[in-house]
Design a protein that fits this description.
Radius of gyration: 26 Å
Pfam family, one: LOB
Strand content: under 5%
InterPro entries: LOB
Largest sheet: none
Family: Belongs to the LOB domain-containing protein family.
Order of helices and strands: HHHHHH
Protein name: LOB domain-containing protein
Oligomer: single chain
Shape: elongated
Length: 159
């Protein structure tokens, strides 16, 4: 008998046993870390590490008398590492993430600048329309990346 999926069947099998289509037992080693309501967590770790390696890592932690929360940290780091590896396999996602982040930084800086520019108008009686027309052309270009150097997008990925 294996160390997971053996013993008496439970009403709700853990995500690991459900995905592997085996009977989940009371002594299922994976049940505390892969609850039935979150099968994506197990599928992600299983895709990269495999069931055997997940169990080996948990057994090593068990032999070292690691507390239960320590074993949960091991599982969380396996899932995180698996998701990171999936992102490396899909560079388009990384590029889109980088573009979105650059646009967000640009928008936040523009918002801050507009907030700083509006402070004098709130305390004085001058007409705010005069300054808005002068700076509107400068701020519209902040939303876009420079088209002159397309390799600027890849700088954070390769040192």
């Amino acid at each position: 008998m294996n160390s997971f999926g053996s013993g008496k069947a439970t009403v709700f099998p853990c995500a690991a046993c459900k995905i592997l289509r085996i009977r989940c037992g009371e002594k299922c080693m994976l049940a505390p870390y892969f609850p039935p309501e979150n099968p994506h967590k197990f599928a992600t770790a299983h895709r990269v590490f495999g069931v055997g390696n997940i169990i080996k890592m948990l057994k090593v932690r068990f032999k070292k008398n690691l507390p239960n929360d320590g074993r949960a940290d091991v599982v969380s780091s396996m899932v995180y590492e698996a998701e990171a590896e999936a992102r490396l396999r899909d560079p388009v996602f990384i590029l889109k993430l980088h573009l979105d982040q650059a646009n967000l930084v640009s928008l936040v800086s523009r918002l801050y600048t507009l907030g700083e520019e509006s402070k004098p108008f709130s305390s004085s009686e001058s007409d705010p329309q005069d300054n808005d027309n002068d700076n509107s052309a400068d701020h519209n270009n902040d939303l876009f990346l420079e088209d002159s150097d397309p390799m600027i997008l890849w700088e954070p990925l390769w040192p």
